[in-house]
Amino acid sequence: MSLIVQSDSSSPIVLIVTDWPEFALVAWIEEFLKDQSLQVRVVLPQQYLAAVDQISTSQEQHYKTLVLIGFSPPLSILLDRFDRALAEFGPEFDQSLNQKQAGWSALIDQIGPTEVPTSFIFGSLSLQLAAVQQPLLKFLAAGEAQVQNLLKEVQVKLPGAQIFLAEDCLTQPMEDLRFRGEMELPLLFSILGLHSRVLLDPQQVWGLQTLEGFFTTIAPQLLKPHKAVRVLVRGGEVLSRQWLEQVQAQIQTYFAYTPPLLPVTTEPKPVGFTPDIICQLQSDVSQSLEFQVRSLPHALIKLEELTQRAAGFQVSLKWEPHYLANSGDKYGANSTSVPS
Q: pLDDT tens for residues 176-189?
């Protein structure tokens, strides 16, 4: 089935390239551009050349290309991707992401010769997962490394491109009933400790923001005359511990249990580019976090099901934190290394 959506054939055309066509941000951008009397065609990366050829053959105006990369999906989509990677590659599941990166790199090379203004919209995390060996997080770390590599590649190969980077953006809007409340990063990192009845605190700053706030910030820029600008958009800087204390209180409210926080050592991750503009949003993410907490039983069931399937591929998803022997409190304030 083609993913191309057309409107008035006399209007200039915007191509949106994404590997997640169902993403709410894609739908919002599409609706916004159509309201400005533009045609919008949503295509997968491997459909890009065919879409460009079609525009050229029909002698239509290719106004702009928008490329969306790297936004963290909700838990159900994430687990499905990991499950398929296990089925195809077994313990070498991260090879599936090597194939994916090759596809994005090919797209960047295909965009290179064109003179059509191009904007890249990246989603990324401030949470550094590179040192983590738990397989699901290792899979996520490989995906995040892919985003950083592609971000660098765009800057080298397409210096005239416009770049918007959404850091720590919660991707599930409240009105999207398909995924509302599903667990996502960075909170997913912390709840993976819950089978040991702790919340893992990476001791970092999380600039959480809503998808709605990010969209409202960048949408007007997509219509302005093209300028090779690099924009970082993030929420207000708050310690992960403060976010997790909210989560603790909500778990107590809904499940009559307060999991202690277990500090773990992680490394801060530098931004993959030097922004020309930094937009710091004061997003209210409390409702999103509350919905995620309410979905905890569903999330833990899904994770346990995946754990059982992964065991069939000789992949263990078990997560056993190692506590400091000299800690006066089993869950005290001392840090330990990231559990593996």
A: 666 666 888 889 88
Domains with residue ranges and CATH for the chain: 70-337 (3.40.50)
Q: Minimal CA–CA distance to 186: which of 285, 101, 278, 52?
A: 285
- Tokens at 323, concatenated: 């506590």
Helices (H), the chain: 24-34, 48-57, 75-89, 95-111, 135-157, 187-191, 211-218, 240-255, 286-294, 296-311
Q: Which residues of 141-164 are buried (b: 16+ CB within 10 A; e: fewer)?
A: bbbbebbbebbeebbeebeebbbb
pTM of the entire predicted model: 0.88
Q: Is 25 in contact with 211 (CB distance < 8 Å)?
A: yes
Q: For 155-206, what is each residue's pLDDT tens digit?
A: 999 999 999 999 999 987 766 666 666 888 889 889 888 877 899 999 999 9
Token couple for 5: 């959506």
Q: CA-CA distance, 244 to 204, in Å (whole number)?
A: 11
CB 278 within 8 A of CB 218: no
